[in-house]
Specification:
single chain; 135 residues; Rossmann fold; ThsB_TIR-like_sf; ThsB__TIR-like_domain
Length: 135
């Protein structure tokens, strides 16, 4: 029986199609079991303040084996993706950075903190999670 990877996928809701693609790759991968701890646009969390949202994000990241970051340049301008990187580092969670299709550049912070950076290809992403996940 394969391990179950508990994953948080850090992404921008403006680019939720990329998130949907990645979750599809994980769902379709052979011998890959996973639980999604992300906060997709289709299932947002309720919160009353920024502080409460940060706590809910931290609680989710705390439960995972690996954080996957969709590393388009939009991530450099996202307060939330920045926070998720900081929390992953603080909590000692491995980070896999995924360079979206066609992107030449990626934010420096992701380059600095990712344990591995892979290109936009299903097998590359799944294999990187298997290598880096603490499952």
């Amino acid at each position: 029986m394969s391990k179950t990877h508990r994953l948080f996928i850090s992404h921008s809701w403006k680019y939720s199609d990329q998130y949907e693609t990645i979750t599809g790759w994980f769902d379709e991968a052979s011998y890959f079991n996973w639980i999604n701890y992300s906060i997709p646009i289709t299932n947002p969390v309720d919160f009353d303040s920024k502080k409460e949202l940060k706590q809910k994000i931290t609680n989710k990241i705390n439960q995972v084996n690996c954080v996957v970051i969709l590393a388009g340049m939009y991530a450099a301008h996202s307060e939330w993706i920045d926070y998720e990187i900081d929390e992953a580092v603080r909590l000692g969670k491995p980070i896999v950075g995924v360079k979206p299709w066609g992107n030449e550049k990626m934010p420096q912070k992701i380059q600095d903190y990712a344990d591995e950076i892979v290109n936009w290809q299903s097998s590359s992403v799944v294999d990187a999670v298997k290598r880096n996940s603490n499952a």
